[in-house]
Amino acid sequence: MREPVEATVSLPGSKSLANRALVLAAIADGPSVVRRALRSRDTLLMASGLSALGSAVDTAEADWPVTPGPFDRDAAVDCGLAGTVMRFVPPIAGLSSGAVAFDGDPHMRQRPVGEVLTALTALGVEVDDGGRGGLPFTVRGTGSVPGGTVTIDASASSQFVSALLLAGARFERGVDVRHDGKPVPSLPHIEMTVAVLRERGVEVDDSEPNRWTVAPGPVGAVDTTVEPDLSNAAPFLALAALSGGRVTVRDWPASTTQPGDELRTILALMGCTVETTDDGLQVIGADRLQGVDLDLHDVGELTPAVAALCALAEGPSHLRGIAHIRGHETDRLAALATELTGLGAEVVEHPDGLSITPRPLRAGVWHTYADHRMAHAGVIIGAATDGVLVEDVATTSKTFPDFAGFWSGVVGAGPA
């Protein structure tokens, strides 16, 4: 990248917040609207799955009205590659009086969900997974879920906890979720779940470490406006970091539970100037990008973009605490090690992280593994390295429709 980038960008809404809002709207005590809903494959799959159960989700316009309905029919739910659909909808399906079959893309059968299914069985829901502990499986509801106390190992995904909490208020005895295992990754996502529940009047007790209790009761019908997806800001803020330019992301919330907010701290540690202005969050790139030693356990989704920046910094970096991202859309640690090494970086892959020593990068193909965050890493590398071809950049549609066109408008030429 030869010229400093000067840009102000507006991002689409958060997938994580949108899908939580949709789930709660589908089991609320009246109609509500999810405003500024992200229109992406994951959110449309969520809307389709909830509609299949019996609610009505109208995705025709930018704001999505949701009307709860009787969950009284057999249904099929396509999870695609959406972890939130595969994990959040089964506890809701337990409230149905029909048989609800779940399946998804081939790779989705490798992603972990067994802890949720085992927990549902313990809480009184019949689950038929053929002993696989994953897709495909069928939830056979009776119209209600007894609920109660359940102990799970959520060290593979914070979504295991969120899935049970989101439905818990509708269980007869609520739900008391206890974690027993290695530390739960991505804790900000559980904090996000707790926050959206409380916004709807649900009583949640998270005062004890590794324990979350949701009291039984109604879920309030609350219109909500979805915040911008802050993790999607990573490639754009990286342009400022790499070029010595200035990029502003509009509507950055003053307070948020999104893990993407940690970009402010990470970029500052790498030498950038990070400021909040009247327009949003502004990042001004440094003359030299510094290597970092970071524990990304709570913000693992930022790892691909951060790893790309580390490969373009002046000194070595160490990224730790992220073994759980091996179970995301792809094994992100292995994929990052493979792609960065293939373009000339020196990378050591550890069980729970990466050590990256920058070396001159060369032209080549960056493979995305059908993973939107890997595509983000690829376009960051491509912005600073001539001749890098990002394969299947369209996978970014998972959380950012028309990312390629938007990126092209910012950098002047989109990824191939």
Task: Give me the secondary-structure topology.
Blueprint: E1 6-9, H1 15-26, E2 32-35, H2 41-53, E3 56-57, E4 64-67, E5 75-78, H3 83-93, E6 99-103, H4 114-122, E7 126-128, E8 137-140, E9 148-152, H5 159-168, E10 175-179, H6 187-199, E11 204-205, E12 211-214, E13 224-225, H7 234-243, E14 246-250, H8 263-269, E15 273-276, E16 280-284, E17 293-295, H9 303-311, E18 317-320, H10 332-342, E19 346-350, E20 353-357, E21 364-366, H11 372-384, E22 388-390, H12 403-411
CATH C-level class of the largest domain: Alpha Beta
Q: Summarize the amount of helix as a percent range.
A: 25-40%
Largest sheet: 4 strands, mixed
User: What's the CATH H-level superfamily name of the largest domain?
Assistant: Enolpyruvate transferase domain
Distance between the first and last residues' Cα: 16 Å
User: Which structural category fits the helices and strands?
Assistant: alpha/beta
- What count of domains describes the coordinates? 2
CATH architect. name of the largest domain: Alpha-beta prism
Strand content: 15-25%
Low-pLDDT residue intervals, each spanning 5 or more residues: none
The general outline is globular
Trace the largest sheet across and list its strands. 1-14-16-15
Q: What's the CATH topology label of the largest domain? A: UDP-n-acetylglucosamine1-carboxyvinyl-transferase, Chain
Q: On the 0-100 scale, what is the average pLDDT? A: 95
CA-atom Rg in angstroms? 21 Å
Number of DSSP strand runs? 22
Question: Helical region count?
Answer: 12
Task: Fill in the keyword field for this structure.
single chain; 416 residues; alpha/beta; UDP-n-acetylglucosamine1-carboxyvinyl-transferase, Chain; 2 domains; 4-stranded mixed β-sheet; 12 helices; 31% helix; globular
